[in-house]
Amino acid sequence: MKTTLLYEEHGLRRFVLVLDKGEEACRAIGDFAAENHITAASLTAIGAASDATLGYFDPETSSYVSTVFEEQMELASCLGDIADDHGTPALHAHVVLGRRDSTAVAGHLQKLHVFPTMEVILTESPAHLRKRLDPATGLALIDPASSAGA
Q1: Is 73 domain-assigned?
Q2: Cα(96)–Cα(103) distance, rounded to whole angstroms?
Q3: Total of domains in the chain
Q4: Which of 7, 23, 34, 104 is the most buried (most CB within 10 A)?
Q5: In 3-state terms, what secondary structure has residue 25?
């Protein structure tokens, strides 16, 4: 992965991350966030993938149902955030992937192998975002009340 700091002012940093062929996107972005002490950020990305695993949250079981797609796809859209989950940066992103026949699949990003590239714009916030366990779903969700005063 190649990275560049594009902007820094008043606690806000903006980076570009260009992932290499074969890199696993969730791991690469998470490692970058940890190495740069990023606990609050938003991100967007485009690119392409050789395979991906997407999740769908099933409220009846309070768990994710995963689907693996093993084909070349365009990363048409990726929106997400990074928040502090008990001291560890946690990536939460949703993607839309375009198939050869111009249909699309979408879901919660669980795993994605880049091919040939993925271009990420990551914008850090000067505030910290904290995740807390939501008892109703069993998910770690951003808690605005504990994030605001950080």
Answers
A1: yes
A2: 10
A3: 1
A4: 23
A5: helix
SS3 assignment, position 28? helix
Q: What type of residue sits at position 106?
A: A
Q: What is the pLDDT of residues 138-150, one digit of tens each?
A: 888 878 777 654 4
**β-strands 88-98, 2-9: how paired?**
unpaired
Q: What do you get for the CA distance between the two ends of the chain, in Å?
A: 30
Please write down the HEC assignment for all residues of 135-149.
Answer: CCCCEEEECHHHHHC
For the question of whether the overall pTM of this predicted structure is more than 0.85, the answer is yes
* Residue 100, number of CB atoms within 10 A of its CB: 9
Taking all residues of the chain, what is their mean pLDDT, rounded to a whole number? Answer: 92
The answer to the question of residue 102 being in a domain is: yes
Segments of the chain scoring below 50 in pLDDT: 149-150
Print the domain residue range for 111: 2-127
Residue 55: give its domain's CATH number: 3.30.1330.80
Rounded Cα distance between 124 and 42, Å, is 7
Residue 80 lies in a domain: yes
pLDDT at 126: 73
Q: How far is CA 31 from CA 19, 27, 61, in A?
A: 12, 6, 30
Q: Is residue 11 part of a domain?
A: yes
